[in-house]
Amino acid sequence: MSSTRQSAKKFLIFVGKLLFTLVEAMIFGLLPKPRKNVAGEIVLITGAGSGLGRLLALQFARLGSVLVLWDINKEGNEETSRMVQEAGAPQVHAYTCDCSRREDVYRVADQVKKEVGDVSILINNAGIVTGKKFLDCPDELMEKSFDVNFKAHLWTYKAFLPAMIANDHGHLVCISSSAGLTGVNGLADYCASKFAALGFAESMFVETFAQKQKGIKTTIVCPFFIKTGMFEGCTTGCPSLLPILDPEYAVRKIVDAILQEKLYLYLPKFLYFMVFLKSFLPVKVGLLITDYLDIFHVMDGFTGQKKVL
Ligand SMILES: NC(=O)c1ccc[n+]([C@@H]2O[C@H](COP(=O)([O-])OP(=O)(O)OC[C@H]3O[C@@H](n4cnc5c(N)ncnc54)[C@H](O)[C@@H]3O)[C@@H](O)[C@H]2O)c1
């Protein structure tokens, strides 16, 4: 076949697939997407000792999943374990793990594989925030932000992805942030770590897709502030468009996105529009909107978690 005919054939196949995918997306946009069954799945949640991690564990317990809880905070994690048992999880396994330490992640991951089995849903949720302006932030704290908020994701993927690929079954969940979509003053190290987490999860989604590993799903979550205490003292200048989210609401949305195998979840919905605007508006217009929404001042009252991490 001549190269022109080959190119024409390739183009026609592409157009056919494009139309099919667009129609499919439109149909699923109108109809509610079916939720997958996660009963019996082994769900590992990092940072399960409080906040979103604890609430996610409770939701998966109600859905009949086997839970593997990781946290640096032993007491908080054991408390979650008790709550999850009461909520009806068929099995709960709590491990103390410092996700900022690669050796700790690999050691505890080996223990999980021996004692529980192959993790099929991995939720990288553990996170910290320094909440300091860049020049006031000690180097060690900035490194810690990267270790917990981003590098831990590399090590957990290395530990659990091979079995997911072998079983052609797995779901990788990245809890990033709206701070992983747009830079925020007073949050430079946090934003950078959350951009990195998002970039890594998105790249791994593309890598599994390109390698036709169809059983491996990815969900990337980018929420604005949630009332868990992590961003205590922070404010929003525009609660109607950018409300500070209720943790129960955020977790319901996150679990729903996982069950529907959605790739991206931004909370609240206004963030989708902000990202769209950012992609084409002149910088000065973007800054005017940022100023109008009072985003330059969201961190002014930051006090953060009361407990020491
Ligand atoms: N709260 C918000 O406003 C908000 C907004 C967007 C994204 N997020 C992200 O959501 C995730 C959960 O945050 P949260 O609001 O529940 O905060 P949280 O402080 O209640 O929970 C974080 C958990 O991570 C654990 N953790 C911290 N360092 C760890 C380490 N080295 N190893 C293991 N565990 C560690 C903590 O002990 C804690 O239990 C974080 O990744 C955070 O960045 C939070």
Automatic annotation (TrEMBL):
| Any single biological process term in GO | negative regulation of gene expression, epigenetic
Record's Gene Ontology CC terms? chromatin; endoplasmic reticulum membrane; lipid droplet; nucleus; plasma membrane; transcription repressor complex
Q: One MF term in GO for this entry?
A: all-trans-retinol dehydrogenase (NAD+) activity
The record's section on InterPro entries has:
NAD(P)-bd_dom_sf (IPR036291), SDR_fam (IPR002347)
Q: Write out the entry's keywords from A to Z.
A: Membrane, NAD, Oxidoreductase, Transmembrane, Transmembrane helix
Transmembrane: present as a keyword of the record? Answer: yes
In terms of superkingdom, the source organism counts as Eukaryota
Gene3D superfamilies from the entry? NAD(P)-binding Rossmann-like Domain
Q: Name one Pfam family in it.
A: adh_short
The transmembrane residues are: 12-32
**UniProt family annotation:** Belongs to the short-chain dehydrogenases/reductases (SDR) family.
User: What is the name listed in the Swiss-Prot or TrEMBL entry for this protein?
Assistant: Short chain dehydrogenase/reductase family 16C member 5
Q: Which organism is it from?
A: Otolemur garnettii
Classification from the root reads: Eukaryota, Metazoa, Chordata, Craniata, Vertebrata
